[in-house]
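Dear all,

This email documents one entry for the complex benchmark we are building for the journal club exercise. For each entry we list the sequence lines for every component of the assembly. Then comes the predicted three-dimensional structure of the complex as a token string, followed by one or two observations. Please use this as the template for your own entries, and keep the labels exactly as they appear.
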Amino acid sequence: MLESDKTDHIKLLYWMMLTRAVDDRTISLAKLGKIPGTIFSQKGHEAISVGAACALSAADVVAPMHRDLGAYLVRGMTPGRIFSQAMARSTSPSQGRDVNTHGMGDIELGIIGYVSHLPQAMTVALGAAFSFQYRNEPRVALTFTGDGASSEGAFSESLNLAAVLKLPIVFILEDNQYAYSTPSKYQYAITDLAARATAFGLPGMTVSGNNVLDVRRTTIKAIHRARNGGGPTLIKANTMRMEGHALHDSAEYVPKELLDKWKAKDPIANYKKMLYEKKVLNRRTEKLLLEQINKEVSNGEQWAENSPYPDPSTLTEGVYA
Amino acid sequence: MPEITFLQAINQALHQEMEADNTVFMLGQDIGILGGAFKATEGLFDKFGRERVIDTPMCEYAFSGLANGAALMGLRPIVEFQFADFISTGFDPIVQFAATHHYRQNNPLPIVFRAPWGGGSYAGPFHSQCPEAWFAHTAGLKVVIPSNPYDAKGLLISAIRDPNPVIFFEPKYLYRSQSGEVPSDAYTVDLGLANVAHTGDDISIITYGAMVPEAITASKILHKSNISCEVIDLRTISPLDSQTILDSVKKTGKVLVLHEARKTAGIGAEIAAIVSENAFEYLDAPITRVTAPDTPVPYSPPLENAYRPNSDSVIQAAKTLYYF
């Protein structure tokens, strides 16, 4: 294996481990009562958000949803800003005005903040893709949505409009088998959601959402196609939501056997195992990675905790530009 | 100055802003090849092509969302809804994303959502609505409703150049029935400023849109009975120009609020509250509201004529108010 390939593997592992570490720390902070709102666990989604975001070029943009923390990190959002957003501080991307990863956009980093109404991010990403086409720029928009959101009308409208206008956009559909408590069998009647793409005249592909290399490889192809005028692609990534819908949800409605089955498919543990087998990773490198991640997370947490809350006197500022 | 119709004034503003700024583009249903259901976008497709005048599929949600994303990336979209009634299918991206975006993310979102609005043409419950209160109740949107060709052009140009999402309702009853002098060059009329459309001393008629000409007609007739009415044309529903309203009320002491939208929780209720809060001691009579009743907009001419206020209903209410 080439040295550059090794570095590349380690980088993917780093982003997934960082995603999980930030997620774990956020949950701890919430349990300590340091987060006024709720949070959405990322467990099970790390390979999708990291793999897809790593397929982008610097000038591209991403419009994520609430299980795509990895994409924020890959695009350069620091753990500190992520913690400060959850902790409702004035230094957060929304200046304490929006909750958890909602409204955590940063246009300089090519990140568009989302609103709760999934799959609205798909429609906003259409507009970003449209602006690239309009200005004849070789840029691409990447957006994420979920199995539950795929039942909304805006999902179908977006696929259709993207196909009709041949927009440079890639849609990632994360099928994590549950929309809050509603299992897939009550969400859709077809076998594979990727087939929906065909109905609108764009390619639909299915990847293993727990395999970061598979996700990235397929996203790279779709982005290449979009960048070269080939139009949109829908990529459906299978995974399992390993925690409840949000922090308050113990998710007892999910069968234990299902979780056990998917625990064995953990995207990070399996990738690590493969890297050990290929001798890309060794104990020393893993230790160094962990140390670096812990430092970043702890520094970020400290910075967020030291950040001030927004001043109530600013309440009515900025309603209009 | 050349005299043109309300519709031509809109069309002229669109042509001139598209010419002046190549980040301005339009999207909506049947706005390109057809030139719009009312011909408001006539000639734009031929001049600017499909790249900038986009006939979309029927998908108000997706194309409103597209406008959000395009604005975020530095373009200035003008979205046309074929009728104000159909804005409900694109409601979510407007009130959830566009309206809140600057407050949450600090990025300007310059978008104009245009729509032919209001009744008077016997078009039934789904081609006659006045949904401005939905949007006035949402923080972060500007809501503009012009009443004459001069304002229509100047306000639309201001809306296109504004850094915020603007809901721009065009009273379709006035499209061809109203003509007026309009400068051929581009000019702006400031958003957020009401206009004293007719001066008077006894009663303040506070109104907007297609009810402004009805109020002016009523005022002229009432003048013969020695009742002097001042007509305030709000022009912008959100944010409201409280100052102009209060200045007039303090002068007349009697208030008649007039709109063709329904009564309950309408703009008139807000105006009544503003007057009560700020000029209670100047009032010589209770505030009168002349509005449509709380029903859907009916189709049959005798029904719609009874539904929609006009100069006669204004005269009647003004007389009652005057002799209070």
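Observations: The radius of gyration of chain B is 19 Å. Chain B has two domains: 3-181, 195-322.
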